[in-house]
Amino acid sequence: MEQYSLNLLFVGATFLLYIGIAIWARAGSTSEFYAAGRGVHPVLNGMATAADWMSAASFISMAGLIASTGYDNSTYLMGWTGGYVLLALLLAPYLRKFGKFTVPEFIGDRFYSPTARMVAVACLIIASITYVIGQMTGVGVAFSRFLEVDNDTGLFIGAAIVFFYAVLGGMKGVTYTQVAQYCVLILAYTIPAIFISLQLTGVALPPIGLFSDHVASGVPLLTKLNQVVTELGFANYTEHHSNTLNMVLFTLSLMIGTAGLPHVIIRFFTVPKVSDARWSAGWALVFIALLYLTAPAVGAMARMNLMDTVYPGGAQSESLKYEERPDWMKNWEVTGLLKFEDKNGDGQIQLYNDKSEAFAATAEANGWKGSELTVNPDIIVLANPEIAALPGWVIALVAAGGLAAALSTAAGLLLAISSAVSHDVIKGTLAPNISEKGELLSARIAMAVAIAVATWLGLNPPGFAAQTVALAFGLAAASIFPALMMGIFSTRVNNIGAVLGMLSGLLFTLVYIFMYKGWFFVPGTNQLMDTPEGWILGISPLSIGSVGAMLNFFVAIMVSRATAPPPAHIRELVESIRVPRGSGAATDH
Amino acid sequence: MSENPSNNEYWASNIRLVTYCLVLWAVVSFGFGILLRPLLSGIMIGGTDLGFWFAQQGSIIVFMVIIFFYAWRMNALDKKFGVDEE
């Protein structure tokens, strides 16, 4: 069977599965729509959380980012997993005990202020929309390659599918669809990695393969990789090159962002008990770790394979002739994500670091006039099975997996946005007497509008997948996480403190990002150069979320000290969410 | 409930447990993975050093252990102080 038909078959079959599940688990009540009726088993909830949270950025971009710089991008690995520790220890059990439907609802009640609730809604929508853009970009990349349609058509198909199962199923449909999506995406990620690990190191488990010996040369894989890349002027793969402060702040920003992202937090409202919320966070991390422990191996091995393809006899020998390039290069050239430009006209592909001054003399002696191959890091995972010449069904499976990752996260985010609009804005403020039916309808309309906005932004994306996503984490870190944490761990932080804290964290972070990335991400409107030299104190706009979070904590605590303490019934509320007993009663609405 | 001394003791034990866990969380990631990496550079593992392993895999494994340990200890504490769910 042709590759194209195989792709269609795999992608089509998985889509049918998701839609089938959505119909089977469609939501009839608001409790089912917002919180899946609170009957989800912690292990299943962990799996759904993993799919919800492992986005196009984790699946498609992350291994490519690690492959391109090696050690320095370990930040993504630690950041996107370390947040679960914060979530499990500081937030999940207490929010489950509080027992309402949305994050802004908690903030509004705890800080006894409708203003706080609306500020939380604004923070939630800004962070979630920024995040959805990254998912939609990922959907475009995956579709354009595997279904051989252009980016825009791919996006429209993706949006239609999400619309169908998220709008119909609500949290209940999304949860069970995500369990299926998790299975698809983890198989799609690990199967090619196992094959490649066997080919390169003879070890079946990729995380162990990464630290094993390279079969062809007999030296450890990482030693061999370091040797190959440094011979071509690239930075040593395992060494630390970036600014240490920035690396720490970026990791921290991803961690607290993970714990502050509303679509992840609301997953812990769906389990039956407080103790289940604790276990569920652990299970989520186990399922996430299956992918995250494989990713560094995929990154290093993909880099090794790419180097081997371009220099079949080693870095010192003749490079690949353009005419003899393998099919996968041809396939990806069509998408524009892989580019070859024969700068010195010798018909061969030269791939080296043309920015390295130390290497310039060697390049000139070889008659090279610049690196001729540009590989977008986003294609590393998707192209990996082709690079390693794996069977067609594996390639089709990866296509289905990439789409599962992007669609599951998009659905989770849209659900978080729609519950905030219908439950917090409409029912909570504008029309408190709305019927349950009316509330469900408004949730579905809000979701449809959110999908339309997300699709439009996906058509006009401001950056590539992982970067946009990193910005969303910064915004969530600076606004939502500190407010939730202070709401639980302090009885002294009051309404004014919380509101001013969230606003200062959010605005500070947004302005800092816009100054470098352009206002509302419009290119050319930035005031400062987005380069390490242009960053204030060397802090990248991607890392600024952790500074925004500290500002949030500082402002909230200082302002609260200067103003009246919260009333007695709020202190009682805080005392009561700190103990698990009685969580059942709290869920009754 | 704030008058109830056993609940305050419960909360204090919780804070203590959370603190220990978060110190470990910071040591394996920010510590071994980034800041203290030079200290571990002498310990070689599969073509690189232990710091690289912590940054790319070790910290994730420790994170999982921390969460399950916390969940197990907390659920035990809930029972000890009689605040678990019936």
UniProtKB/TrEMBL annotation, chain A:
InterPro entries listed in its UniProt record: Na/Glc_symporter_sf, Na/solute_symporter, Na/solute_symporter_VC_2705, Sodium:Solute_Symporter
Membrane topology value: Multi-pass membrane protein
GO cellular component, one term: plasma membrane
The UniProt record lists the keyword Transit peptide: no
PROSITE patterns: NA_SOLUT_SYMP_3
Recorded GO MF terms: symporter activity
Transmembrane region(s): 6-25, 77-95, 116-134, 154-171, 183-205, 247-269, 281-302, 393-421, 441-459, 465-489, 496-515, 535-559
First and last residue of the signal peptide: none
Keywords on record: Membrane, Symport, Transmembrane, Transmembrane helix, Transport
UniProt-annotated location(s): Membrane
Pfam family, one: SSF
Similarity field: Belongs to the sodium:solute symporter (SSF) (TC 2.A.21) family.
Name of the molecule in the record: Cation/acetate symporter ActP
From TrEMBL, chain B:
Keyword Transmembrane helix: yes
Transmembrane among keywords: yes
InterPro entries: Na_symporter_ssu (IPR019886)
Ranges of residues in domain Sodium symporter small subunit: 8-84
Alphabetical keyword list: Membrane, Transmembrane, Transmembrane helix
Transmembrane segments: 17-40, 52-72
One matching Pfam family: DUF4212
Highest taxon above the source species: Bacteria
NCBIfam families with a match to the protein in the record: Na_symport_sm (TIGR03647)
Protein name, entry field: Sodium symporter small subunit domain-containing protein
